[in-house]
Amino acid sequence: MSQRVFITGYGIITSLGKNAAENLQSLIDRKAGYGALNVLDTVHRATLRACEVKIIDQQLFEALNIRTDTGFTRTTLLGLTALQEAISMAGLTPEEVRSSGLLSATTNGGIREFEKYYYELMDPAQRGDFVRFTDTANPGEHCERLADFVGIKKYIGTISTACSSSANTLMQGAQLIRHKKLDRVICGGAESLSKFTINGFNSLMILDTEHCRPFDSTRKGLNLGEGAAYIVLESAEEVERSGRKPIAELKGYGNANDAFHQTASSPDGKGAFIAMEQALAMANVRPNEVDYINAHGTATENNDLSEGLGIQRLFGNRVPDFSSTKSYTGHTLAAAGSVEAIYCVMAIQQQMVWPNLNFENQMPELSITPVRQLKRSASLTNVLSNSFGFGGNTSSLLLASV
Amino acid sequence: MKGQPVYYINGIGILSPQKTFDNDAFLTELSSYHENVLTCVTPEFKNYINPIQLRRLNRMLRIGLTAATICLRDAKVQTPEGIITGTGYGFLDETAKFLRELLQQQEKQLTPTYFMQSTYNALSGLIALSVKCMGYNNAYVSRGLAFENVLDDAMLRLIENPDANYLIGAFDEAAEVQYSASIRETYFKAEHIHNLDLFNTTTKGSIQGEGAAFFMLSGKPSDTTWCVLHDMQFIYNPADAEEVKNGVAAFLQKNSLSIQDIDLWVDGASGDIVRDSVIKELAQTTFKGIFHTRFKHLCGESCTASSFALWLGASIIRHQHVPDPLKLYPEKNPAQLKTVLIVNQYMNKNFSFFLLRQK
Amino acid sequence: MKKTVDELVVELRAELIKQLNLEDMLPEGFNENTPLFGEGLGLDSIDSLELVVLLDKNYGIKLKDPKEGRHVFYSIRTMAEYIHQNSTRV
Fold first, then answer.
1. Which of A164, A183, A235, B117 could cross-link with A393 by S-S, CB 3.0 to 4.6 Å?
2. Is A331 one of the catalytic residues?
3. pTM for this structure?
């Protein structure tokens, strides 16, 4: 049964860049995507900044060669951009695409368009161009659009476990491969900024009005971001059959629930601990063999303390290098898990550790400090990627070099 | 069928537009509706949810948590190994409450409750919190395939650990927002009908339903077992009826069954003259001569209506009879009810097959 | 005419019951001095965010940091006193 699961391609678009190469360069150059909100129309433009993809919908349509009257939401457009890069990096034939599964994650789907045309949509007597967005409040809509556009037929699914969503798509994709239900699954998530999200997080009072500072004692909250990222997972058999070169291996994963509070993590990071421990156990990797942790690190008071304590508990006095790349991308919510899994794969490919930007002050509750400078010629074999979310969801992925 | 894992449904809890929350009664009372929106018949929530929790839960969270609680009690399981939910539209009316406030108040002075309760994993998280389940937790939102994804997930996990209990379920609300937005596109009928006449209509669109259904799935039987879930599979976006027919044939063959082995098939026709075309063709070809029943006149159409069908199939096997409101074709009782096949469809785009057998 | 602390207590009690759905769940002996959080009424961090908005909407008082709320929201009386001192609207 135990099919090994390999990564043979990926695609990504974030505020750091519209493809993998641009994202990599920004990580190396310490170039964060944080800045003024000028694509999304919101009253918070004056006071809140975010990590926005600085490409308007029109340009996304053009780059994808899609007509603008097709009802594709920004979430779907960002998703397609990343999905097509992933397919092309893996070099999949149309028949291979067709026989692939697609697991996509989103917290919002097309709410950005739904909120824009809300009053028109709510009035059944009205007619107009807005009807193409009829079903965009449905989170599964984007996934069907993606599958239909690229021609994926075999299997689809959409996952929404708040901020851990796309980590769970990778997990379930690997399950489907390990149990030989599918040979190949493309997994990831897509998220566009919306008034709905910005105001939701704002009402929870966990948005920092300045650039976020993960694991810093003065951290005040998160910055929101947008983007999409997809990863091609394939079975060992399929890798051998096709002759494709695996980039990395998805060796282990863990999923647990903190069962503490609807929106807060437990103070001792129990859920985080369990998820990481499971990922290690499944990969048969000991804590001292982990070379880097890409932390969830949202820069909220609650998350970083809980996660930090969970890490300390698991790794004791031998905590590996860790950082939160949300200091670059902001929190891309459902896309964060796959965005950061790709950054982990890039770290393995480049043998580099990405710095945690904006860290100045040690948290008194923790004895650990994130990596502050880009580390070159690091020796990375096993890397952990953490993704946690509202509802107590905690997920952890163990990615390994091949 | 040797070598294939077996799954047992060891508990069920379901709230629907029919009085289904009492597992001892099987459609003995019928609720009928004279409009195109069917909403849940609910028990006294405080018998299932403590008052502190109840205080801030929206209607769907109450319905979902109650269904989950009934299921846990039915299965005599305190804490399952994992919790997995599926939904098409989640808490869409909650989403809209926050959205309306946001638009009306120009994005100012907003409270977080509606926002928090609109997240799609709010129910799976709430159940975990209620029963202190720190195990596996996941939430699928794949429109007409959400519940099917849930089953796939649980079934794979049970291969790894057959002793485990997975609390799996689905929920969807008859959201006003969805109704208003999509009636224009004839997801729902323009004219008002009586729900029991659904299959006599000749127009486009269905009637809107809702519900929450939870199942305790395990690789091991127990003294509370309802039936065996033998297999489940779905087809996404078939090119034509032929593809679905071939899908049914392959599914049966995979399970070493012929069409004559099916004692009853349950179809997911929605009363939509256009979108029921494939199901109708199956009835006239593949399933010709096989005992047959339908269910969406009782629960209405929703993305996760297949969860109602799963309860229905399990109940028929458990009670060994098909209650009157189900409209059996032909109108006589089958000689035996040991093997039931559910063929659901959503919007003629998502098709799924559930194979149930007596324990 | 500025409202007195006692008038605010009465008003806040009604408002809290409505906003936080406290109907039917106020414990025996609940009064304006009962702690709203923890061992008292058992409200949580989400309720405190609801209260932050209530202060802003009804009394024009903006708390920037929910942590500031901890002493303000200790009980109905502490809330009434804080509003009495800080609101220009009542």
1. A164
2. yes
3. 0.97
Q: Do C45 and A203 touch (CB under 8 A)?
A: no
Exposure of A143 by Cβ count < 10 A (0-12 exposed, 13-18 middle, 19+ buried)? buried
Q: What is the pLDDT of residues A118-144, one digit of tens each?
A: 999 999 999 999 999 999 999 999 999
State the smallest CA–CA distance between residue A349 and chain B in angstroms: 30
For C5, other C-beta atoms within 10 Å of its C-beta total: 15
Least Cα distance to C53 among B112, A47, A48, A197 occurs for B112
Mean pLDDT in residue range C38-58: 89
Considering only CB atoms, A161 lies closest to which of B98, B116, B121, namely: B121
> Which range marks the domain in which residue C84 is found?
1-23+45-90
How far, in Å, CA of B195 to CA of B206, rounded? 10
Q: Using CB atoms, which chains have 3+ pairs under 8 A with C?
A: A, B
| ipTM of this complex prediction, to 2 decimal places | 0.98
What domains can be seen in chain A, in order of their start residue?
Answer: 5-242 (3.40.47.10), 252-400 (3.40.47.10)
A281 touches chain B (CB under 8 A): no
Tell me which chain A residues have a C-beta less than 8 angstroms from the C-beta of B125. Answer: 257, 262, 390-393
How does pLDDT run across B262-279, given as a tens digit for each residue? 999 999 999 999 999 999
| Contact between residue B208 and residue B300 where contact means Cβ atoms under 8 Å apart | yes
Domain of B109, CATH number, reads 3.40.47.10
Q: Catalytic residue at A142?
A: no
DSSP C26: P
Chain A residues with CB-CB distance to C56 below 8 A: none
Scan for tokens 């998502």, then name that residue.
Answer: B350
DSSP per-residue letters across A295-356: ------HHHHHHHHHHHHHHHTT-PPEEE-THHHH-B-GGGHHHHHHHHHHHHHHHT-B---
Range of the domain at B350: 227-357
Contacts of B332 (CB under 8 A, 6+ apart): none
Do B194 and B85 belong together in one domain? yes
Give contacts of A264 with chain C, Cβ < 8 Å.
45
Q: Is C34 within the bounds of a domain?
A: no
Of C49, C56, C57, the CB nearest to B112: C49
| Distance from the A204 Cα atom to the nearest Cα atom in chain C, whole angstroms | 7
Residue tagged active-site, from A51, A142, A296, A344: A296
Chain-chain contact of A161 with B139 (C-beta, under 8 angstroms): yes
**B264-275 burial, b if ≥16 CB within 10 A, otherwise e?**
bbbbbbbbbeeb
Give dist(CA A111, CA A197) in Å, integer: 9
> In the annotation, is A296 catalytic?
yes
**Do B166 and B84 contact (CB within 8 A), yes or no?**
yes
Contacts for A46 with CB less than 8 Å, ≥ 6 apart: none
Nearest by CB to residue A199, choosing from B110, B145, B303, is B110
